[in-house]
Amino acid sequence: MIGPDFDWDSAKREMEPWNWWGIQTYFRCPFNDKPGESDIAVMGVPHSSGNGSTERDQHLTPAAVRNVSALFRRSHGRFGITPWDLAKIVDAGDVPLPEGMVNDVSVQYIEAYARRFNDAGTRLVSIGGDHSVTGPLIKAVAGPHSKLTNGRPVALVHFDSHTDVYHNLPHWFGNKRSAGHWGSYTVAEGHVDPHRSTQIGIKSTFSTWGSDQPAKDLGYKVIGMDEVEEIGWKGVAAEIRKRVGDSPIYITFDMDVLDPPDAPGVANVEPGYPGLRIGDGIRILQSLRGLDIVGGDIVCMMPIKDNPNQITSMNAMVVAFEMISLMADKLGNKSKAK
Known about the structure:
alpha/beta; Arginase, Chain A; 8-stranded parallel sheet
Protein backbone atom coordinates (compact mmCIF):
# COMPACT_ATOMS: atom_id res chain seq x y z
CA MET A 1 0.00 0.00 0.00
CA ILE A 2 1.44 3.36 -1.03
CA GLY A 3 0.62 5.83 1.71
CA PRO A 4 1.83 9.22 2.90
CA ASP A 5 4.93 7.69 4.51
CA PHE A 6 6.10 5.93 1.36
CA ASP A 7 9.88 6.10 0.77
CA TRP A 8 9.90 8.47 -2.19
CA ASP A 9 13.68 8.99 -2.00
CA SER A 10 14.21 5.27 -2.60
CA ALA A 11 11.76 5.32 -5.50
CA LYS A 12 13.62 8.24 -7.08
CA ARG A 13 16.93 6.38 -6.81
CA GLU A 14 15.39 3.42 -8.62
CA MET A 15 14.38 5.74 -11.47
CA GLU A 16 17.79 7.36 -11.94
CA PRO A 17 19.01 4.93 -14.65
CA TRP A 18 16.15 5.86 -16.99
CA ASN A 19 17.02 8.74 -19.29
CA TRP A 20 13.41 9.80 -19.83
CA TRP A 21 12.76 10.44 -16.12
CA GLY A 22 13.61 13.51 -14.10
CA ILE A 23 15.42 16.76 -14.78
CA GLN A 24 18.14 16.24 -17.35
CA THR A 25 21.76 16.96 -16.45
CA TYR A 26 24.92 15.83 -18.19
CA PHE A 27 25.33 12.11 -17.47
CA ARG A 28 22.95 12.37 -14.48
CA CYS A 29 25.55 14.40 -12.60
CA PRO A 30 24.43 16.73 -9.83
CA PHE A 31 24.04 20.37 -10.84
CA ASN A 32 26.62 22.68 -9.28
CA ASP A 33 27.91 25.80 -11.01
CA LYS A 34 30.22 26.86 -8.18
CA PRO A 35 33.92 26.73 -9.14
CA GLY A 36 36.03 24.72 -6.74
CA GLU A 37 33.24 22.41 -5.60
CA SER A 38 34.11 19.70 -8.13
CA ASP A 39 37.12 18.07 -9.77
CA ILE A 40 35.56 18.07 -13.25
CA ALA A 41 32.72 20.29 -14.45
CA VAL A 42 30.74 19.62 -17.63
CA MET A 43 29.58 22.95 -19.01
CA GLY A 44 27.38 24.02 -21.90
CA VAL A 45 28.48 26.83 -24.25
CA PRO A 46 25.37 27.93 -26.21
CA HIS A 47 27.06 30.12 -28.82
CA SER A 48 26.59 30.52 -32.60
CA SER A 49 27.83 33.92 -33.74
CA GLY A 50 31.50 33.09 -34.39
CA ASN A 51 30.94 31.50 -37.80
CA GLY A 52 27.89 32.82 -39.60
CA SER A 53 29.19 32.07 -43.08
CA THR A 54 27.69 28.58 -43.22
CA GLU A 55 25.00 27.60 -40.73
CA ARG A 56 24.11 28.58 -37.19
CA ASP A 57 22.00 27.09 -34.38
CA GLN A 58 25.07 25.53 -32.80
CA HIS A 59 23.92 27.19 -29.57
CA LEU A 60 21.27 24.44 -29.32
CA THR A 61 23.92 21.75 -28.75
CA PRO A 62 24.26 21.89 -24.94
CA ALA A 63 20.59 21.05 -24.42
CA ALA A 64 20.60 18.30 -27.08
CA VAL A 65 23.63 16.49 -25.66
CA ARG A 66 22.45 16.97 -22.09
CA ASN A 67 19.17 15.31 -23.05
CA VAL A 68 20.71 12.14 -24.53
CA SER A 69 23.61 11.81 -22.09
CA ALA A 70 21.44 10.45 -19.31
CA LEU A 71 21.11 7.17 -21.20
CA PHE A 72 24.85 6.46 -21.42
CA ARG A 73 26.56 3.63 -19.55
CA ARG A 74 28.16 4.43 -16.22
CA SER A 75 31.49 2.60 -16.51
CA HIS A 76 34.37 2.60 -18.97
CA GLY A 77 34.87 -0.93 -20.26
CA ARG A 78 38.30 -0.49 -21.80
CA PHE A 79 39.76 1.45 -18.87
CA GLY A 80 38.04 -0.70 -16.25
CA ILE A 81 36.92 2.37 -14.28
CA THR A 82 33.77 4.17 -13.24
CA PRO A 83 34.71 7.86 -13.62
CA TRP A 84 31.99 9.10 -11.30
CA ASP A 85 33.59 7.07 -8.47
CA LEU A 86 37.08 8.49 -9.08
CA ALA A 87 36.31 12.21 -9.15
CA LYS A 88 33.61 14.66 -8.16
CA ILE A 89 31.92 15.47 -11.48
CA VAL A 90 29.08 17.96 -11.89
CA ASP A 91 26.91 19.61 -14.51
CA ALA A 92 27.91 23.27 -14.24
CA GLY A 93 25.07 24.56 -16.40
CA ASP A 94 25.60 26.89 -19.35
CA VAL A 95 27.77 29.96 -19.82
CA PRO A 96 25.51 33.03 -19.67
CA LEU A 97 25.81 34.99 -22.93
CA PRO A 98 23.55 38.05 -22.72
CA GLU A 99 25.21 39.50 -25.86
CA GLY A 100 25.26 36.19 -27.71
CA MET A 101 24.74 37.66 -31.18
CA VAL A 102 27.99 39.64 -30.87
CA ASN A 103 30.85 37.16 -31.14
CA ASP A 104 33.83 39.29 -30.16
CA VAL A 105 32.04 40.31 -26.97
CA SER A 106 30.76 36.81 -26.25
CA VAL A 107 34.25 35.28 -26.29
CA GLN A 108 35.11 37.63 -23.42
CA TYR A 109 32.16 36.27 -21.40
CA ILE A 110 33.24 32.69 -22.17
CA GLU A 111 36.86 33.26 -21.15
CA ALA A 112 35.98 35.07 -17.93
CA TYR A 113 33.37 32.51 -16.93
CA ALA A 114 35.62 29.52 -17.65
CA ARG A 115 38.65 31.06 -15.97
CA ARG A 116 36.84 30.96 -12.63
CA PHE A 117 36.96 27.16 -12.81
CA ASN A 118 40.65 27.07 -13.72
CA ASP A 119 41.45 29.42 -10.84
CA ALA A 120 39.64 27.02 -8.51
CA GLY A 121 41.50 23.97 -9.90
CA THR A 122 38.44 22.48 -11.64
CA ARG A 123 38.83 20.92 -15.10
CA LEU A 124 36.20 21.74 -17.70
CA VAL A 125 34.65 19.63 -20.42
CA SER A 126 32.65 22.11 -22.52
CA ILE A 127 29.88 21.13 -24.90
CA GLY A 128 28.42 23.27 -27.66
CA GLY A 129 29.04 26.33 -29.71
CA ASP A 130 30.82 26.97 -32.96
CA HIS A 131 34.61 26.70 -32.96
CA SER A 132 35.14 30.31 -31.88
CA VAL A 133 34.48 29.15 -28.31
CA THR A 134 37.72 27.15 -28.18
CA GLY A 135 39.92 30.27 -28.21
CA PRO A 136 38.54 31.75 -24.98
CA LEU A 137 38.31 28.32 -23.33
CA ILE A 138 42.01 27.69 -24.00
CA LYS A 139 42.93 31.20 -22.84
CA ALA A 140 41.05 30.49 -19.61
CA VAL A 141 42.95 27.27 -18.90
CA ALA A 142 46.50 27.84 -20.20
CA GLY A 143 49.38 30.26 -20.10
CA PRO A 144 51.14 32.26 -17.38
CA HIS A 145 48.08 32.67 -15.14
CA SER A 146 47.00 29.02 -15.24
CA LYS A 147 46.73 26.99 -12.08
CA LEU A 148 46.04 23.75 -13.96
CA THR A 149 49.05 24.02 -16.30
CA ASN A 150 51.41 25.66 -13.80
CA GLY A 151 51.80 28.60 -16.14
CA ARG A 152 52.58 26.54 -19.24
CA PRO A 153 50.93 26.64 -22.66
CA VAL A 154 49.00 23.54 -23.68
CA ALA A 155 49.70 20.99 -26.36
CA LEU A 156 46.58 21.07 -28.51
CA VAL A 157 45.00 17.84 -29.76
CA HIS A 158 42.63 19.17 -32.42
CA PHE A 159 40.13 16.97 -34.29
CA ASP A 160 38.65 18.82 -37.27
CA SER A 161 38.03 18.93 -41.01
CA HIS A 162 39.57 22.43 -41.06
CA THR A 163 42.70 23.91 -39.46
CA ASP A 164 41.06 27.12 -38.11
CA VAL A 165 44.43 28.86 -38.45
CA TYR A 166 43.49 31.65 -40.85
CA HIS A 167 45.58 34.58 -39.65
CA ASN A 168 46.02 35.43 -43.33
CA LEU A 169 42.46 36.80 -43.10
CA PRO A 170 42.01 40.00 -41.06
CA HIS A 171 38.55 38.94 -39.90
CA TRP A 172 35.70 36.55 -40.66
CA PHE A 173 32.67 38.60 -41.63
CA GLY A 174 33.72 41.14 -39.02
CA ASN A 175 34.71 38.64 -36.33
CA LYS A 176 38.38 38.87 -35.35
CA ARG A 177 38.06 36.14 -32.69
CA SER A 178 36.20 33.83 -35.04
CA ALA A 179 35.87 30.10 -35.55
CA GLY A 180 38.65 30.44 -38.12
CA HIS A 181 41.14 32.51 -36.11
CA TRP A 182 41.42 30.90 -32.68
CA GLY A 183 44.13 28.44 -33.79
CA SER A 184 46.38 31.42 -34.56
CA TYR A 185 45.78 33.91 -31.78
CA THR A 186 46.09 31.33 -29.00
CA VAL A 187 49.60 30.64 -30.30
CA ALA A 188 50.49 34.34 -30.71
CA GLU A 189 49.30 35.09 -27.17
CA GLY A 190 51.21 32.22 -25.56
CA HIS A 191 48.43 29.79 -24.67
CA VAL A 192 49.17 27.00 -27.20
CA ASP A 193 52.53 25.47 -28.06
CA PRO A 194 52.10 24.58 -31.77
CA HIS A 195 55.30 22.53 -31.85
CA ARG A 196 53.68 20.06 -29.45
CA SER A 197 50.24 20.25 -31.06
CA THR A 198 48.53 18.03 -33.63
CA GLN A 199 45.58 18.58 -35.95
CA ILE A 200 43.82 15.37 -36.96
CA GLY A 201 41.41 14.62 -39.81
CA ILE A 202 41.84 17.75 -41.92
CA LYS A 203 40.01 17.22 -45.22
CA SER A 204 41.51 17.74 -48.64
CA THR A 205 38.47 19.75 -49.74
CA PHE A 206 40.10 23.18 -49.35
CA SER A 207 38.12 26.27 -50.28
CA THR A 208 41.47 27.72 -51.40
CA TRP A 209 44.44 25.54 -52.28
CA GLY A 210 47.13 25.75 -49.61
CA SER A 211 44.82 26.98 -46.85
CA ASP A 212 46.43 24.49 -44.46
CA GLN A 213 49.83 26.14 -44.92
CA PRO A 214 49.42 28.83 -42.20
CA ALA A 215 48.97 26.04 -39.62
CA LYS A 216 52.12 24.29 -40.79
CA ASP A 217 54.02 27.58 -40.81
CA LEU A 218 53.13 28.11 -37.14
CA GLY A 219 54.48 24.67 -36.26
CA TYR A 220 51.35 22.54 -36.02
CA LYS A 221 51.57 18.90 -37.12
CA VAL A 222 48.71 18.45 -39.59
CA ILE A 223 47.57 14.85 -40.11
CA GLY A 224 45.04 15.06 -42.92
CA MET A 225 42.40 12.42 -43.56
CA ASP A 226 44.41 10.93 -46.42
CA GLU A 227 47.27 10.29 -43.98
CA VAL A 228 44.88 9.04 -41.30
CA GLU A 229 43.67 6.41 -43.78
CA GLU A 230 47.26 5.41 -44.52
CA ILE A 231 48.65 5.11 -40.97
CA GLY A 232 45.44 4.19 -39.09
CA TRP A 233 44.41 5.23 -35.60
CA LYS A 234 47.46 3.59 -34.02
CA GLY A 235 49.79 5.64 -36.22
CA VAL A 236 47.91 8.83 -35.36
CA ALA A 237 48.06 8.01 -31.65
CA ALA A 238 51.80 7.44 -31.83
CA GLU A 239 52.35 10.80 -33.59
CA ILE A 240 50.32 12.67 -30.95
CA ARG A 241 52.12 11.10 -27.99
CA LYS A 242 55.50 11.72 -29.60
CA ARG A 243 54.75 15.43 -29.95
CA VAL A 244 53.03 16.25 -26.66
CA GLY A 245 55.82 14.99 -24.42
CA ASP A 246 55.10 16.03 -20.84
CA SER A 247 52.93 19.04 -21.76
CA PRO A 248 49.48 19.60 -20.34
CA ILE A 249 46.91 18.87 -23.06
CA TYR A 250 43.76 20.56 -24.28
CA ILE A 251 41.47 18.55 -26.60
CA THR A 252 39.07 20.18 -29.01
CA PHE A 253 36.78 17.92 -31.03
CA ASP A 254 34.93 19.49 -33.95
CA MET A 255 32.15 17.06 -34.81
CA ASP A 256 32.61 17.74 -38.53
CA VAL A 257 35.82 15.66 -38.37
CA LEU A 258 33.59 12.59 -38.34
CA ASP A 259 32.29 10.78 -41.38
CA PRO A 260 28.86 12.21 -42.34
CA PRO A 261 26.98 8.98 -41.40
CA ASP A 262 28.41 9.29 -37.87
CA ALA A 263 27.70 13.02 -37.58
CA PRO A 264 25.17 14.37 -40.09
CA GLY A 265 24.17 17.19 -37.74
CA VAL A 266 27.15 19.51 -38.15
CA ALA A 267 27.59 23.00 -39.56
CA ASN A 268 30.23 22.18 -42.16
CA VAL A 269 29.61 18.77 -43.70
CA GLU A 270 32.36 17.92 -46.20
CA PRO A 271 30.70 15.49 -48.64
CA GLY A 272 32.47 13.13 -50.97
CA TYR A 273 35.56 12.57 -48.86
CA PRO A 274 35.75 10.13 -45.94
CA GLY A 275 35.87 11.48 -42.43
CA LEU A 276 37.15 9.94 -39.22
CA ARG A 277 34.90 7.09 -38.12
CA ILE A 278 33.70 7.44 -34.56
CA GLY A 279 35.33 4.17 -33.47
CA ASP A 280 38.75 5.35 -34.64
CA GLY A 281 38.22 8.76 -33.05
CA ILE A 282 37.43 7.12 -29.71
CA ARG A 283 40.52 4.89 -29.97
CA ILE A 284 42.70 7.96 -30.55
CA LEU A 285 41.18 9.69 -27.54
CA GLN A 286 41.70 6.61 -25.39
CA SER A 287 45.35 6.49 -26.46
CA LEU A 288 45.87 9.69 -24.43
CA ARG A 289 45.28 7.77 -21.20
CA GLY A 290 47.73 8.75 -18.48
CA LEU A 291 48.48 12.19 -19.95
CA ASP A 292 47.50 15.44 -18.26
CA ILE A 293 44.25 16.55 -19.92
CA VAL A 294 43.44 19.95 -18.41
CA GLY A 295 40.41 20.78 -20.56
CA GLY A 296 38.38 19.80 -23.58
CA ASP A 297 35.46 20.81 -25.75
CA ILE A 298 33.05 19.37 -28.32
CA VAL A 299 31.90 21.92 -30.91
CA CYS A 300 30.20 22.65 -34.26
CA MET A 301 27.21 20.38 -33.82
CA MET A 302 23.78 21.38 -35.13
CA PRO A 303 20.93 19.42 -33.51
CA ILE A 304 18.37 20.72 -36.01
CA LYS A 305 20.23 18.83 -38.79
CA ASP A 306 20.61 15.59 -36.86
CA ASN A 307 18.74 12.48 -37.94
CA PRO A 308 15.77 11.15 -35.95
CA ASN A 309 17.81 8.83 -33.74
CA GLN A 310 20.05 11.78 -32.74
CA ILE A 311 23.26 9.99 -33.70
CA THR A 312 25.31 13.22 -33.78
CA SER A 313 24.20 14.10 -30.26
CA MET A 314 24.93 10.59 -29.07
CA ASN A 315 28.40 10.54 -30.61
CA ALA A 316 29.11 13.96 -29.07
CA MET A 317 28.02 12.43 -25.76
CA VAL A 318 30.50 9.56 -26.19
CA VAL A 319 33.35 11.97 -26.97
CA ALA A 320 32.50 13.93 -23.81
CA PHE A 321 32.43 10.70 -21.78
CA GLU A 322 35.90 9.81 -23.05
CA MET A 323 37.27 13.22 -22.08
CA ILE A 324 35.71 12.92 -18.62
CA SER A 325 37.13 9.41 -18.23
CA LEU A 326 40.64 10.51 -19.21
CA MET A 327 40.55 13.26 -16.60
CA ALA A 328 38.98 11.11 -13.87
CA ASP A 329 41.39 8.24 -14.48
CA LYS A 330 44.37 10.61 -14.15
CA LEU A 331 42.96 12.25 -11.04
CA GLY A 332 42.18 8.85 -9.51
CA ASN A 333 45.74 7.67 -10.07
CA LYS A 334 47.13 10.88 -8.54
CA SER A 335 44.98 10.25 -5.48
CA LYS A 336 46.28 6.67 -5.17
CA ALA A 337 49.87 7.90 -5.48
CA LYS A 338 49.40 10.05 -2.39
